[in-house]
Amino acid sequence: MADVPSDAPQHCPGTTSTQAGKTSACQGCPNQTICASGMPKAPDPAIEEIKLKMATVKHKILVLSGKGGVGKSTFSAHLAHGLASDGSTEVALLDVDICGPSIPRIMGLEGEQVHQSGSGWSPVYVEDNLAVMSIGFLLSSPDDAVIWRGPKKNGMIKQFLRDVDWGEVDYLIVDTPPGTSDEHLSVVQYLSSAGIDGTVIITTPQEVSLQDVRKEINFCQKVKLPIIGVVENMSGFVCPKCKNNSQIFPPTTGGAEKMCQDLNIPLLGRVPLDPRIGKSCDEGKSFLAEVTDSPATAAYKSIIHKIETHQARQHFSSL
Q: What 3 state SS string does the chain have?
């Protein structure tokens, strides 16, 4: 939970709970007296601090999916690359997948380190207009496991949002882990005052993915997160040689298109499988720049254009 202190014991009910400071789990906790007094029920001061920090960020977009392995990080990276391809657009990519940070590898930044300055942590730059932050930059080895409970993850995400010096940014893309748990709640809570423009939800065509993605959509609705749209990843395989399209993951229940129709959510597009996407990610290169003639590249560019158009409309409607 986002309201659990980093030094709290296991089974802490959370500082905003009516049981704060009163349950057996609270016995011996250094925060018990404060919790029992009701003081922590005030909003976390970090929320306003983050609002001030985010004042220089125009658009904040979360990339979500209830399912793991559907290509959230790959999409987040290509969304960032695509937006930054316009040299006048400043883009930042934040990786909040604390236990499985793959963004440093995908962006070609493995081995890079974060530096501290008077204005906070300095992100790592891929290009002059594309900045990245990930816990992967804080590990001594990419093979190191991050074995943390929720409160420590929460504290790390707070630091990323409050202490990173992003500067003037047009788009902040937040890559999240699968599920609807600690990391997601933390991001939503800490950006509650700054405002989240919307979410892009990633799925694959088969029902085993869609059933978890529906949970993610339900999560967004419960916490009042706007949904920009859904992307169906791994949507068929276009052979680079013969150009024939094969369904590797058959959409047995109608795929993302049927789900979006049922739930009245925009389908932003379908990205077909291309082995060169995986190769580009392993090599830390932009697939969009490396393989310009792939149907997947065309699909990515169409989806990115729809997201840009959506954000432009939202911006003008708020004026």
A: CCCCCCCCCCCCCCCCCCCCCCCHHHCCCCCHHHHHHCHHHCCCHHHHHHHHHHHHEEEEEEEECCCCCCCHHHHHHHHHHHHHCCCCCCEEEEECCCCCCCHHHHCCCCCCCCEEECCEEECEEEECCEEEEEHHHHCCCCCCCCCCCHHHHHHHHHHHHHHECCCCEEEEEEECCCCCCHHHHHHHHHCCCCCCCEEEEEECCCHHHHHHHHHHHHHHHHCCCCEEEEEEEEEEEECCCCCCEECCCCCCCCHHHHHHHHHCCCEEEEEEECHHHHHHHHHCCCHHHHCCCCHHHHHHHHHHHHHHHHHHHHHHHCC
